[in-house]
Please model this.
Amino acid sequence: MMADRLYIGIDLGTFQSTISSSAGKSETIETVVGKPKDPVARNFLGRDVLFGADALKNKLACNLFRPMAAGVAQDDEANLAAAKAFVTNLIETADPEEFDEVYGVICSPSHISFTDKSNLVATLRGQVNAIMVVSEPFATAFGLEEIGGSIVVDIGAGTTDIARIYGTFPTEEDEMTIEHAGDSIDNELISLICKKYTGAQVTKDMVRKWKEEFSYVGGEVVECMVELSVEGKKQVVDIGDLVRDACETAMPHIVATIKAIVASADPEYQPVLRNNVILSGGGSLIQGVADRIADELSDIGDVNVWCCEDPITKVADGALALSQVMPDEQYTSIN
Model:
């Protein structure tokens, strides 16, 4: 006999996506889809579509799609089809066929257009019965039980989303989205490496791995040894100064946006917000980031900046927690 309803929380990210379910399952998959380039590749791979690490491992035999640019489905036929296939695969990891119906809370960047919302619904149609769309910072705050008064800074791959939270769903005026995030740091690091090491051959995936291993801000330069191919020749080089410089480029923009969120809040509430600034998303794993942002915010008064635990799964976990307490009328049916 089937159980009645499965609740899921989904964080659809530019770089990776996570699903958490009321059945106790959680899965994080890199948001990439691979489709074989030709019949030879199709026979070699034995599949019509590959996802996540599997797609990347076979990327030379595939056309790769990263369908969630800046956290929303790209608005063209090929990427929308890839997004649909990816979301279907992600939800299937939660075994939805064991349940009569599926209700999901889906997280998106703070400011997305009507077209973006429509595309999001289209990717989920046929997979869930009803959805709610909430912003990533709100889901994080809900999961942390910090909705009473906080500023959540979700530093993702495509965007950094910053919101003030005070006991209710945030309005558009409470949230800001900027594109200074993981991807912009990666692009800057590629530029710095190519400038310093003429002829260096680097890809976005290579640079992202180095950033994930070594990223830091502030303090003395840390040694970061990596293997480069320079005009086909192996070189082992130290990119420690370049990693720090690339990570630093996002900090002024994030700090300026936090200041704007504080300044436009109710003045009586501003001290509460300043003293509970929460960093989440993959960017919160940059070593020294909380202290760096706190230092830059010190000119607006006493501040407390801290990084949440398990930042990669926190958004989906918060969305799941929210899904289980919201009344049915808060959901939109997409049968």
